[in-house]
Design a protein that fits this description.
Pfam families: GIY-YIG, HTH_animal. This is Reverse transcriptase domain-containing protein. The chain is an alpha+beta fold. Helices cover about 35% and strands about 15% of the residues. The protein has helices at about 5-20, 50-60, 115-130, 135-150, 155-165, 175, 190-200, 215-220, 270-280, 285-290, 315-325; strands spanning about 30-35, 35-40, 75, 80-85, 90-95, 180-185, 205-210, 250-255, 265-270, 300-310. It has a three-stranded antiparallel β-sheet with strand order 3-4-5. Strands 9-8-10 form a three-stranded antiparallel β-sheet. Bound molecules: zinc ion (2 copies). One zinc ion binds near residues 230, 234, 236 and 246.
Length: about 350
């Protein structure tokens, strides 16, 4: 589901498949679907699950369905365990955690603010409550949450107190709307205490601080993205100072005329290769300059190099470009002016 549109497309497609599967059978009593997970109940025992699965799998050879049947009147669906009460024919639900679930939440000894761990516990407790239809299933759901957090090193009293807090319903008041939310990076508990003391001293009592973690550790350990290779015998790179750099973006570059050593300084947020191609092919400063030497300017009439990279901020990039222009002798400069006018 890497693409944002993928879930929507899957929903539309599965909706179409539903029709194909269900037209063969009587209308189900109950049908719920979440993307490609379906929960269907019929009021009859005449449905042959093997036949149902066979029909579903014949609709599209590249999609293989599996089927799960209830055991002891129970069937899990997503994070919910659905139990059929045979006496009144009603469904009861409680929280369900898959056996293959890693049983991991943010560990107690991880470098995260306690408020974040508390928030997680409260959120999970509320989710458990929302999945539960009666008091006994609620007790069951809450037990799962308790076990999950205890297994991840959360102290017993912390779990107990915060779960109790979460089970009490919160009624929003008028003051809730006036709260100012502030995001502050989390350094450690000591800094957190100090920032709170500063806020306290201001006497403003409707500020709520949310501590956020800076860099996610996953990002530190992730292998670097593979650098894109430019095509073999790349004509754009043929006269570059370094090979295989035409796909770089966000840089300040220098083009030198092979005939008279005149220099052009430029910046781009796009790939440098496409910008250099434009200089060669379109009626702009560099092209116009080259026509003094040759009727049809080509890559052979210039050499180019990148002087600064990783300049993602356009203002910063233009300042650096302007400085480079200023530092280049105006006798050899192709750029029309001595530096870009910056409205800082
Ligand atoms: Zn290249
Ligand atoms: Zn020249």
């Amino acid at each position: 589901m890497g693409n944002n549109l993928a879930p929507t497309m899957a929903i539309i497609y599965m909706n179409k498949l539903d029709e194909g599967i269900l037209t063969t059978f009587d209308e189900p009593l109950y049908l719920k679907r979440y993307i490609d997970d379906m929960f269907v109940a019929w009021s009859t025992n005449d449905i042959d699950p093997t036949r149902l699965l066979k029909i579903a799998n014949e609709l599209n050879k590249s999609i293989e369905f599996t089927i799960e049947l209830p055991k002891n009147n129970q069937l899990p669906f997503l994070d919910t365990m659905v139990t059929l009460n045979p006496d009144d024919g009603k469904f009861n639900t409680s929280l369900y955690i898959k056996p293959i679930h890693s049983q991991c939440v943010t560990p107690w000894d991880s470098h995260n603010p306690i408020s974040q761990k508390r928030g997680l516990l409260i959120g999970e407790t509320k989710r458990a409550i929302s999945r539960s239809t009666n008091s006994s299933s609620r007790t069951k759901s809450l037990r799962l949450i308790k076990q999950l957090f205890r297994r991840n090193g959360y102290p017993k009293s912390f779990v107990q107190n915060n779960m109790e807090k979460a089970t009490k319903t919160h009624h929003p008041t008028e003051n809730d709307e006036k709260v100012i939310h502030l995001k502050v990076p989390f350094i450690n508990e000591e800094y957190k205490r100090r920032t709170q003391a500063v806020i306290h001293r201001t006497g403003i009592d409707n500020i709520k601080i949310h501590y956020i973690n800076g860099r996610r550790s996953a990002r530190i350990f992730a292998p670097p993205k593979e650098r894109q290779e430019c095509p073999p015998n790349c004509i754009t790179c043929s006269n570059a100072e370094k090979e295989n750099c035409c796909l770089l973006k966000h840089c300040v570059y220098q083009i030198t005329c092979m005939h008279c050593n005149a220099v052009y300084i430029g910046e781009t947020g796009r790939t440098i290769g496409s910008r250099i191609k434009e200089h060669v092919n379109t009626q702009q400063t560099v092209h116009v300059h080259m026509t003094k030497h040759t009727s049809e300017p080509s890559f052979n009439d210039l050499k180019w190099k990148i002087i600064h990279t990783n300049l993602h901020n356009v203002r910063e990039r233009r300042i650096i470009e302007a400085i480079e222009i200023k530092n280049t002798s105006s006798d050899t400069l192709m750029n029309g002016c001595v530096g870009r006018y910056l409205n800082i």
